What does this fold into?
Amino acid sequence: MDQLIDFILHTDDALISLVAENIYKAYFILFLIIMLETGLIVFPFLPGDGLLFSAGVVAASTDMNVWVLLVLLIIAAITGNIINYYVGLTLGAGLKQSNNYIIKNYLMAHVPKAEEFYAKHGGRAIIIGRFFPMVRTYIPFLAGIVRMERPIFMKYTVSGAIIWIMLFLLTGFFVGEIPWVKNNYGLIFVSLAIVTVLPLLFSVIMKIFKKLTT
It folds into this structure.
């Protein structure tokens, strides 16, 4: 647990230290973080895009095999989505009937919008959601609640996982040997987190502003 917290707060340094200590443990922790971030709705704060980029950078200059890592993290992302989908599928009926204030007014209040969103965009919602922190944690959960067809869900879950992991991990790997990137990927990690959160933050601000002005 301490190592998991260290990864969240000091991703780049923690990853380098862990690879030097035990490369197999590094593979396992990276797998676990990616799976938990997409697999359980209580872990939307875990690093995703920045972690993948940092892992690629570290793989470029250590004994970590980027191709082994690529396969492991794609499996982790797919597994996480499947777990989250079935949690939503299993708990969906009970959540819809719940009188709990938080569940009724915050979580389930978004279900009609999610149903409309999935009806309009179909599987693309699963792929697009991969590129937004926090959103990617809730997308498969809501897909289960609205009972998206399993074949469609699986098809786009696999496609989205492959595109997401390859984009960030391999970008980090292929630019990882550039001196400026080596010396500043802590800054890059933070920048990626900020840039990917901005669209979501902007959307929330606009909704609040709209409510205040109507």
